[in-house]
Design brief:
- By secondary structure, the chain is an alpha+beta fold.
- A hairpin with a 2-residue loop joins β1 and β2.
- The protein is 26% helix and 14% strand.
Amino acid sequence: MKEFLENIVKNIVENPDSVTITETEDQGRVSLMIKVADSDMGRVIGKDGKVINSIRMILRVMAIRQDLRVRVDIEDNRGPKEPQQPTPPPVNPVEQTAPVEPPMPAVTDQPAPQIDTEEVPQTTAADFVGQPNQTTVIDNSGN
């Protein structure tokens, strides 16, 4: 399996001499570690990991036929990553400046106050006919 993987990876990369495959086996589990030049990492991983996932699928099929389990990883030889500080959750400025609304009044068993409708003048559309602020539509289509 190691030779097969090495053949696939060497045909993908630009620097085939820099390809190293390390194989370890433990209780029916085979672990294969791929090491390539930094400039070839993108070629082996592929867009959205499609290339490496395809390689893993092929080797998984081979392993099933041999009654094994396989794991394929790529060695990250770019050096240790700097520990990242946890980022605080984003703060919504609207939430910070939103006014506090007063609490709703308590619901009581008392009836609502009656509004005197005689004080409010009743207006209809006929009251506005002929007013100077009325909008008029002019049809210039000739019909």
